[in-house]
Amino acid sequence: MTEIHLRNSGVVKMKKKKKSKFKKKFEKNVSWITFSLMRALLTFIPERAFPSIVHYLEVISRPFSRKWRRIALENLTLSLGKEKSKEEIEHICRACLREVGMSFCEMVSAMVSLFRNSSPLNELKEKFFLEGEENLKRALSKGKGVIGLCAHFGNFTLMGAGLTSRGYPYALVVRPTDESRVETYFQKWRDKMGYDSIPALPRSQAVRQSLLALRQNKILALFADQNKAKGGVFVDFFGRPAGTVVGPAVMALRTGAPIVPIFNVRQGTNKHKVIIGAPIQLEISGNQEKDILVVTAKVTKVIEDFVRQYPTHWWWFHNRWKAKPKKKEEMETPESSSPFL
To answer: Which of 70, 97, 157, 270 reaches 20 to 30 Å from 127, CA-CA?
Structure first.
């Protein structure tokens, strides 16, 4: 495999404090206990009660989630402050946290149902409506696989069920959770959902399995909206340079597989619309480094367009702009390549 070196990826390195073994073990046990309790509770709680539960949890968690709220409010103010009032920004902040809570409740509820139901995908199929399915069919007909451009947006964990329940082959690169018992349960759940899980590490193996998935004409879901320092490039995101993964660009340029935006938009409790956009048009110059930068910028612009249209669906509490360029980087700001928005 050709190794790609990017010159414009310098970042300011920040040292992290290492957690003690006791603290790590404590956090893992808390994670497992919380997850187990949620599974037990959601076995009996009806779906119609989810909004009230999530609203209550969001309110009582405010003293314990100050860091996340601070990051979210700062990101929202810098990104949307010129077009949204302070009250609107505070509403979006609360709403995005509730969206995460709703998605978590739906995910755990689906897990419980999947392990009880003999035909779980048929039940999940009714919860998802596909918009733009013809874009996916057309892209897959080329036989090169499809790079599904995804983000931490809406109920992205269940989104794949809207595809696998209709017979579409769906693979995604996953980063295992720190708690092994939770991860074992998650892996069994992904298997039942029909997901082809590709471990993110080791990286070389993840790349090989991703290329294989595309050769098998599968949908390869890649998330391109998180902070990336080492190995990423800086492109414009809401008017600021953001360290961004180059995976979708590299895969598309190497394989010729089309990049198709796939985003999940909530329509109600456990009701979702999966929006499938037209393939992103790539302009290839032959200069590998430049092409990666331009394609990554286009991919990021598509994500920004979705976030602008559905601001309560995205993870504003993620420190997306944490990585800082050492010097002024080349920034690509292409016109919107998302004509269906």
So the answer is: 97
